[in-house]
Amino acid sequence: MSYRFRTDLKWSDATPKEAFFNRRQIMTGAAAMAAGTMIGGIPGATQAQAFGVPIEREANSLDDITSYNNYYEFGTGKGDPKENAGDLVTDPWVIQVGGMVDNPGNYSVADLTDGLDVHDRLYRFRCVEAWSMVVPWNGVQLGDILNKVGVQSGAKYVSFTTAVKPDVMPGVRFPVLDWPYREGLRLDEAMHPLTLLATGIYDEPLYNQNGAPIRLVVPWKYGFKSIKAIVTINLTDEEPDTSWNLANAREYGFYSNVNPQVDHPRWSQATERPIGGGLFAKRIETLMFNGYADEVASMYEGMDLSVDI
Ligand SMILES: Nc1nc2c(c(=O)[nH]1)N[C@H]1C(S)=C(S)[C@@H](COP(=O)(O)O)O[C@H]1N2
Ligand SMILES: [Mo]
Questions:
Q1: What are the residues whose beta carbons fall under 8 Å from the beta carbon of 165, sequence distance 6 or more?
Q2: CA-based, 20 to 30 A from 267: which of 88, 236, 252, 278?
Q3: Is residue 78 part of a domain?
Q4: Domain assignment present for 131
Q5: Looking at the 3D structure of the chain, how many domains does it have?
Q6: Is residue 42 predicted with pLDDT exceeding 60?
C-alpha cells in the first residue's frame, strides 16, 4: 500500500511520537522499503517524484517544524521565532469575527472550534522562498467555522490579521512589514475542505513559533498565505489588502498559488529544497498547486495564472 497525500490521510495511527528527533518514517509498505535507500547520497532523505506522479515523502520531525520558521513578528531569522516567541500568551485568546456575518463577536478558540470535527492532515508546505516541509496538522476546516458564524450573501472574501504585541514581539518594533500581518482568501478558497485553521501539530498544541493558538493552513498556496496567531476574521465583498502584496505587489500576488511555471522575479519556482534532508539534500520538483491540483484547479478555471499570481 503506498502512501499518498490524501486530504484526510490519517497520520496519527502510524506515527510514533519518537519521530521528534530521529525522524522515523510514517510510511508503510513499498514506501517504507524505499525509505531505506540512499537518495541523493543522504540516507532516508526525502523522496523525489517519479514520472511526474508525486510519490512518498516522509513527514518532517517536530524538531524541523518548530526550529525553522518564518514569523517576522519575532524576527526575520529562521531561528528567531523559536528563540523569541515563548513569551506570547496564547490563552486566553480573543478572535474578533466581523463584517458580513450573521454572528459577529469576540470568540475564544474553544468557542470557535466547539463541536467541529478535528482533522488530521498531512500536507506539503511550500514557502515562496523555495524550501518545503511535510507537516502533520490537527485542525478544523475553516469552512466549518464560517458556516458556524454564518456568512451573509454578498460576502466574497475573508481577511485575517495577526496579533501585534510590541512588548513580546521584537519584530513589530521595526517596520519590516506594515503591521499587523494580514492575509486573505476568496470565499470559495476559504470554504474549500483542504483549508484549515490549525490548532496542533503531531497531536500537540501548536508551538508559539508555528502560530499558536490558531493559524491558517492553505496547502496549495505559498506559505506566507498561512497567517499565524489570528486575532481577526472579517468577511467582505472586496479583495482585502495582504501584507506581502502591500510590501511588493510584483513579487507577491493576492492568489500566490504554488506554480512551478511562474518564477518569482528573483528566483525560479520550478524546484524546492526539502528541509531536514541535510545540507546537500537534493532539490525536488515543485508540483502545480503544490500537488493539490486535482482538488483545487477548478477554482481557477478561466484565470491566467501567469497574470493572477
Ligand atoms: N503572522 C505571520 N504569519 C506568517 C508569517 C509571518 O511572518 N507572520 N510567515 C509566513 C511564512 S512566509 C511562512 S513560510 C509560514 C511559515 O510557517 P511555519 O513557520 O509554521 O513553517 O508562515 C506564514 N505565516
Ligand atoms: Mo514563506
A1: 88, 172
A2: 278
A3: yes
A4: yes
A5: 1
A6: no
Q: Which ligand is nearest to the CA of 209?
A: 1
Q: What is the pLDDT of residue 135?
A: 97
227 located within any domain = yes
Residue 305 lies in a domain: no
Looking from the CA of residue 69, the nearest atom of ligand 1 is: 19
Q: Evaluate: CB of 143 within 6 angstroms of ligand 1.
A: no
Which residue has its alpha carbon closest to ligand 1 atom 7?
71
Cα(288) to centroid of ligand 2, in Å? 17
Q: Phi and psi (nearest 5°) for 285? A: -70, 140
The CA 69 to ligand 2 mean position distance, Å, reads 9
Plot region of 216 (φ>0 → left; ψ -120 to 50 → alpha; else → beta):
beta
Provide the domain limits for residue 42. Answer: 14-298
Nearest CA, atom 15, ligand 1 = 223
- Give residue-wise pLDDT tens across range 95-145: 999 999 999 999 999 999 999 999 999 999 999 999 999 999 999 999 999
| Pairing state between β 42-43 and 38-39 | antiparallel
String of b and e for 10-22 (b: at least 16 CB within 10 Å)?
Answer: ebeebbeeebbee
Ligand 1 nearest-atom number relative to CA 127: 14
Protein residue with its CA nearest to atom 8 in ligand 1? 71
**Ligand 1 pocket, residue 72 CB under 6 Å:** yes
Is pLDDT at 47 greater than 50 in this prediction?
Answer: no
Question: What pLDDT was estimated at residue 55?
Answer: 58
Please state the atom number of ligand 1 nearest to the C-alpha of residue 125.
21
> For ligand 1, what atom is nearest to the CA of residue 68?
19
CATH number at residue 38: 3.90.420.10
Predicted confidence (pLDDT) at residue 39 exceeds the cutoff of 60: no
